[in-house]
Amino acid sequence: MFRRLSQLKCRCKAELDRSANRSSDLRWRGVFLRCQAAATSKRWREMMTATQPELTLFHTPGACSRVTLNALEELGLAFDDRPVDIFKGAQFSPDYRAVNPKAKVPALVVGGELLTETPAIILWLTERVPGETLLPGPTPLARAQAFADLVWCSNTLHPLARTIRMPNRATTGDPAPVREAAIAAMTPLLASIDARLAQQPWWFGDRWSIVDVYLSWVLGMCEGGVDTSQFPALVAHRDAVRARPSFERALERETRALAAARIELPGGGRL
Q1: What is the pLDDT of residues 208-264, one digit of tens each?
Q2: Conformational region of residue 111, where left means phi above 0, alpha means psi within -120 to 50, and beta covers everything else
Q3: What is the model's pLDDT at position 270?
Q4: Neighbouring residues of 176: CB distance < 8 A, sequence distance ≥ 6
Q5: Mean pLDDT, residues 88-97
Q6: Main-chain phi, psi angles of 99, to 5 degrees
Q7: Residue 2 confidence (pLDDT) above 50
Q8: Domain range enclosing 29
């Protein structure tokens, strides 16, 4: 097909070079541009197929890396996943530090290049797969506002939720007061989220987004420390997130990873 397109482009160019008639010139110019667009489009698709980066996600079942795992499943991208038992300190092993010197999950390896931090990974994925699949935003400002909410989940809700579930990681002393302080700080935040979700099915209204997955994970981490029954809309929202096909596929991967790596969730937690 490229040969035929190239031949037709050459003829168009020759006609344009010879043409002294404006209408004829415009006609051949239009044919030339259409051929060029078709050839470029096909070449782009073939190039993307040939050079599509290999994706490998390092994650821990039940951890915040679930957000990235769900995003990959939602987009339908092919990827490998490698479990890392952060509950036993595997993230500090020389082997894993060789992959991610930050000693954290998630870590996404893209064609040999490392990408870390959930918001950064989600940002790359939204650019890798055009559209509004993971985050809404018909305008640059709207996209930035949606991304700001994702960052809020990461830098405000996430640390509090982690401290509620694993307060010993936040102190070398008595973890009880640390946990209580985190619960006190988190409770009004959950109340505000619950009030918003009582008015609409998803965080951004009628459209699911990856922020919904993050909120679902945060609520799960708070269970056992916060009385979640006081937030019925948030609980219903969590159940709706977990019922989506992409979440179910992510959960299947986590379940397999638990068995393969013999990972035990702390405190008898569940996925």
Answers
A1: 999 999 999 999 999 999 999 999 999 999 999 999 999 999 999 999 999 999 999
A2: left
A3: 81
A4: 167
A5: 97
A6: -85, -50
A7: no
A8: 2-40
What mean pLDDT comes out for the span 145-163?
98
Three-state secondary structure readout of the chain: CHHHHHHHHHHHHHHHHHCCCHHHHHHHHHHHHHHHHHHHHHHHHHHHHHHCCCEEEEECCCCCHHHHHHHHHHHCCCCEEEECCHHHCHHHCHHHHHHCCCCCCCEEEECCEEEECHHHHHHHHHHHCCCCCCCCCCCHHHHHHHHHHHHHHHHHHHHHHHHHHCHHHHCCCCHHHHHHHHHHHHHHHHHHHHHHHCCCCECCECCCCHHHHHHHHHHHHHECCECHHHCHHHHHHHHHHHCCHHHHHHHHHHHHHHHHHCCCCHHHCCC
Residue 110 β-bridge partners: 55, 113
Q: Which pLDDT score is estimated for 37?
A: 46
Q: How far apart are CA 65 and CA 44, in angstroms?
A: 32
pLDDT at 165: 94
> For residue 208, how many other CB atoms are within 10 A of its CB?
21
Cis peptide before 106 (omega within 30 of 0): yes
Quick one: 95 and 169 in the same domain?
Answer: no
Q: How many residues does the chain have?
A: 271
CA-to-CA separations, 56 to 16, 59, 64, 116, 191, in angstroms, rounded? 50, 10, 16, 12, 37
- 68's tokens: 């990235």
Residues 159 and 123 in one domain: no
Of all residues in the chain, the percent with pLDDT exceeding 90 is 76
69 and 92 in a single domain? The answer is yes
Domains: count for the chain: 3
62: left (phi over 0), alpha (psi -120 to 50) or beta: left
Q: Is 234 a domain residue?
A: yes
